[in-house]
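Phosphoribosylamine--glycine ligase
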Amino acid sequence: MNVLIVGSGGREHAIGWKISQSRHVDKIYFAPGNGGTFENLDIKQNDIDKLVSFAKKQRSKKLLTIVGPEEPLSLGIVDAFEKEDLRIFGPTRQAAMLEASKAFAKELMREAGIPTAEFAIFTDAHKAKDYVSKQSKPLVVKADGLAAGKGVVVCDNADQAIAAIDSMMTKKEFGAAGSRIVIEERLSGEEASFIALCDGMTIMSLASSQDHKRVSDGDKGPNTGGMGAYSPAPVVDNDLYDKIVKRVMEPVTSIMKKRGTPFKGFLYAGIMVDQNGNPHVLEFNARMGDPECQPIMMRMESDLYEYVDAAVDGRLGSMPPIQWKDQTAVCVVMASRGYPGSYNKGEVIEGLDSKFGNDIMIFHAGTARDSQNRIVTNGGRVLGVTALGQNARQAIENAYSAVRKIRWGENGHYYRTDIARRAIVR
């Protein structure tokens, strides 16, 4: 069996790395891939027609396609592949609305009784600002559509909320994604990421993880696509695990099936855990989290391909529980200085040939190869330096030891220094 992985980030590199360990897999293609992946195709992740054409030519090799990012899912890549009877893992366009529209997701949660923050939806900036002026609690302003993980503004006061409304609806900083917004109550507590494999009927939970969304240490600064993650997340104990499955994952998959749009793919729930240990959904994603994917893949003992293959055929219910390494994995994202704002590209990355050891993986994200075949920066989040350790403290030490061996440009890189520290505190 050959595998095609659609996407170019650290998540796709990590999935490909894990899939390559399967005895069932002969060859892995990436479209378009990055500087750290091989067998890269010159096909953009949103060029659905070309992706379908490539898959059709590979039909005799029994190609299985795995979709990494949200964009092709929202464009209906799964619908297009299934129309041609091509094997693909991911949700249909309608099922991917769970991520593609925050308003859709919030209204679905309300209908299904899934715990989430109180909210209101607006298409008019003046009405949105009037609503803000009448609220006494801190708010979060979200662009309805896809915004590469940056369309969420966590506000401390009304002035910040109004500024966020202006940036999304008046200045159009997120384009069409901000033409409709969701304003919701700002929840407090500790965040966790809960990801599961779904085949439309059965949920197979992956290891717990925790992301670090803000750009700076101490969870300060603007939201990003994620500056680091670790697994497992101690906050998700057995009691909370059961609550998330019963109150979140089962209701959302049940209502999707009831609506005639069963969810098949990686289903991600961003969870806020309140002081009483109860989960509230911040968001749903219709794909694996990034950078959560990297530490999860490092800890996974089972053959990922076998579970994805079973999910495509609706056979997850017959599969044994996934096995995990009894270790902690930590991923530190090395980003271009200036991210999530403007940053330079084309900086030569040095130190990638260092001796890192078997417990370290450097997953590429925003990288490319230049005319001299050197690895250069090509994005905001450049590398996901991921390490295993017997406990959180050791995994952190291993990860940052590797980070310190890598550099680019003159003061060109940036990373948070407190990834997974919360696990030690706990």
